[in-house]
Amino acid sequence: RSCRLWTDTLNRDEIQSIIPNLVEAAKWAPNSGNRQAVRLKPIIDDKEKKLLVGIKEAHCYSAPLLMFIGVDTRLYGALSYFEESMYLDAAAAITQMVIYIESIGLGSSWNHFGLDMIKSRPSNVSIYNRFISELAIPSYIMPIAILAIGKPKLITPEPERMPDNIFLI
Q1: Would you state the pLDDT for residue 19?
Q2: Mean pLDDT across the stretch 64-76?
Q3: In angstroms, rounded to a whole number, what is the distance separating the alpha carbons of residues 128 and 30?
Q4: Distance of CA 76 to the CA centre of its chain
């Protein structure tokens, strides 16, 4: 379940200690053609998080740890940015990280950070360009999401799910 309110109980050492486990979880996710194209950028410093003000909501950049998720477009050959499996590869890695996060008692919020959202407003493009410049994210990395991670201030109620017959074709 998506977390939108965070406590301040995670210190920098605790945050640093889970990053290698997040990387491990993501790198073992299924991916198309075994490309292993997912690239991660942990964001801990408040100055770096504030680069997202104006393009993302406060619940995203206020979390103790942010994980930028992108894919290396060079690994998809001639199709590059038009290869749709990039989104699947990133989603599988994000799902693995979310499962790990919940297994250690933390919460997360999976935040869309794709080019469609970035290019929807000139101000978003400007904010994004500053973000990738300040964080040294190469231009061949296509942004997919930002995973906000921390200790939940509250556990949200379990949302209803559609009945099984809706899922079955």
Answers
A1: 98
A2: 95
A3: 28
A4: 20
DSSP the chain: -B---B-S---HHHHHHHHHHHHHHHHTS--GGG---EEEEEE--HHHHGGGBTTB-HHHHTSSEEEEEEEEGGGGGGGGGG-THHHHHHHHHHHHHHHHHHHTT-EEEEEE--HHHHTTSHHHHHHHHHHHHHTT--TTEEEEEEEEEE-BSSPPPPPP---HHHH--
Q: Give the gyration radius of the chain's Cα atoms.
A: 16
Element (DSSP H or E) covering residue 148: strand 141-150
- Main-chain phi, psi angles of 68, to 5 degrees: -75, 130
Which of 75, 81, 1 is CA-nearest to residue 31?
75
Instruction: Name the pTM for this structure.
Output: 0.92
Stretch 77-83: mean pLDDT = 71
CA angle 50/126/148 to nearest 5° reads 35
**Is 65's pLDDT higher than 70?**
yes
